[in-house]
Amino acid sequence: MKIQYASYQDTIDFLRQSMSEHPHLIRLQSIGETWEGRPIMLVTVSLDVTYADDKPALLYTGSIHAREWIGNELAIKFIQYVIDNYKFNPKLQTALTRNTLYMVPCLNPDGFEYSRNHFSFWRKNRRNNGDGTFGVDLNRNFDAKFMRNQNTQSNTYGGPHAFSEPETSAIRDFVERHENIRIALDYHSQGNVFFPAHKFNHEVEIEGTDLNVLCANMNNEIRKVTGRQYGIHRGKPPAQLIQGSGREYYYRKGIIATVVEVGTRNIPDYMKNMAQSVAENIPAVAYALSEAINYSPLAPARVADFTIKHVGHDNVELEWEYLERDDIYFEVYRSEHNKAPCTEENLVAITKSLSFVDSQLKSGHFYFYNIRAVDKVTKIKSPFSPELRLKTTLADNQCGRTLFPPREQVGYLSQNYLSKNKEHFGYNSMFIGVDKNRGTSIGVIAFDLSTIPEGSHIETAQFFLYPMNRVAAKIEKYGEWSISILDASLIDDIYDFAKIHDAKPLHTLGQTIESDKMTQGIWLRWALNGVERTLLESLLGQNTLLLRIQGPQTLPIGNDSQVMQFDIGYGSFGGGLHYRPNLELIYQLPELSSTVYASSCNTIYKDKVLADKLSSGFDADGEIVYGQLAFELNECFDPQRTVFTGACLTLYSSNCLAFAKDVRFTVELVELKDVDFKHVKQRQKIEYIGYEVSNEQLKERTAHNFIFDSYSLKELARLHKAQTPLYFIIRATAESQARNALVNWRDCQDTQPAQLHVEYIERRIEALPAPTHLQTQVENGVVKLTWLNTDSSDLVGSFVVRNRFHPPRSPFDGVKLYGGQDQYTLDNFGNADIAKYYAVFSYDHVPNYSEPAIIYYPGQRDD
Fold first, then answer.
1. Are 292 and 57 in contact (CB under 8 A)?
2. What percent of the chain has pLDDT over 70?
3. Which cofactor does it need (predicted)?
4. How confident is the model at residue 2, as a pLDDT?
5. Which of these CATH numbers, 3.40.50.800, 3.40.630.10, 1.20.120.680, 3.10.20.30, describes 8-295?
6. I want to staple 304 with a disulfide (CB 3.0 to 4.6 A). Which of 94, 321, 428, 790 is the partner?
7. For the residues 520-524, what does the mean pLDDT come to?
8. Domain 772-857: which topology?
9. pTM of the prediction?
């Protein structure tokens, strides 16, 4: 028996002593009595505790499952932390002054003591069921979707009816009497994961972001202490959610509620593991306590209609609504990951405006935005608005692909299940690591690269994998999971364990994921570096990227498992299309090049124009002489399908100036109404091209290159799209007045005429028209959407997205329902009773996405 753990009586003694020594801080009471007559103790902590029930509160419950001792142990250590620190820690003082902590260290005292003294794996309470069995699973005994179960022997037996047990009815009665409870934490073990509450449907709830951010910010506090990263996973509603849990009961009452699963064993080595779990969760609980006031009636209202106004390739504009108040400002947070914290590190704006432009973003990348209102006097913050998810558009020279593996090419191979390994593909999950039954298990994923033209330049490549369950990873800080690229041409059977396991990798990605960073419910992302992207480019010729995912392959003595479970989106336990492994690519198509010669050139004096001659400088009277030339691109390049990636204007000089005066020559891209001195003098300059050429450079060489910068390239594309000739002016400048300083440039008739060298790719530039005739109807309890696709040979398909809170203005602003060539889809995972918005976007091969076709679905009842 682990004697370092406190008994229930030790806990009560500690609480009584703490109250006697700190009566202004701590209050202790019994809220009920168990079957075996033990008091169910609840401790109240606040400054001043006399007014505790008047403040917003955090409810902490621990050890509702008898064998999960972390809840009781953490409660004791947290109260000791408060006692030791509240007098001088300003954050803790503020949290305790503005909020109240209600803490039930052990909600299952009978079971807890039975686990300590008789059978350590005991889970339930100690109710006599009258049939020779004992115990009810208290976390199945609440009335949130309570499910009757006649199997009293089961570890998850929920009891004869909801709240049949003294423990659950005691906490129910306390919660009913304390409407000031705003947040509830229910501490369990094991898994190192947060399980936020649900409302048993597939729709996003208004509090969904609050739940995720609370967990993510607690996670951030945990990471500071041990570097460990907990998962955040809400499960797959409405199936596979536990019935009758306290978490859903609290949430149904408007309380932000989550289960916290701690550690990798129910009763771990205290000094090595439990002490770490306690230490990392103390600041996490303190953070949650500080947040209670932000979900109380004292908090500002939630920001309304937080939405996307515009998305560009390197910027986005967000907007929202709020009643005008001088005492309110807004905090805007941005992250590149889902379920990320909202802290000072990613606070990108503090503003009183009702809009925000975020710039300097990466093209073709996902971003997640959160917002809350703040009272500038009290500093109390509002709940969060529903999170905005978007993807910046691609830059003009880029294409993008999201590749998914075919069903038959994603799965896992086990050392001890050779005859069944093929059955592990396209069904349920990948199990990767090592355990006593399977032996070593490795994941296999093959991506078809045939849609990426050979010779393309891969600019970014990211591989995403969704960790579904980490319960079988039972050893703290043991093992790493990594990705290797295999040569698919050397493997004729991807279902052969030995061939995959023994294959020599072409490369193993530099990023490995340690066991403590193996989250559940937060996407893992491997970003390929330059060397890895170059390797990927070389594989385009064989059309296949074959990945092997490996974890630890040996176990320490006395251990039976170190396995991570990853979702592949298929099978009865898969999460569907949203959770399939995928490869995100941004690439540039193979570059083409062409040289265009000037269509006309002129020398423009103050009183004359010499056609087919190209000179510039100063005449005998010191008047400036302009060189002018034009290029016609429209015959060479389709304005709708040409993206210029580079351009260089080359001029050849025939002479240099004899004197030493500093005269320099510049080239301007201009808009020109007529070719005469007056109009050239009044020209609208667009941009200088390249750098100026000095007389010294004229002496050194005859060829002079003027390279377009990014702005000039953009203007080149604009003029080309408008089917306007490109006009260039060669202009001389001098440090003082110059005369008879004329440089002759080889003209259009010369053997080396002026030339414009362009590099470009061919891809569609403009998005397609939006789909039309979008309609909804309900068939067999499911919302069906129909629309008409735009009539274009460039159409690849339509992309359908659902958003409960506002019209989707980006294809990624909500839940993806469908992408393909059909003209209908079913919202199989939605709730037909709940109102929402749907949007359908057309997309091409780039992909460019059209403006959305949007429809409001009113639902079949008020939510």
1. yes
2. 98
3. Zn(2+)
4. 45
5. 3.40.630.10
6. 321
7. 93
8. Immunoglobulin-like (2.60.40)
9. 0.93
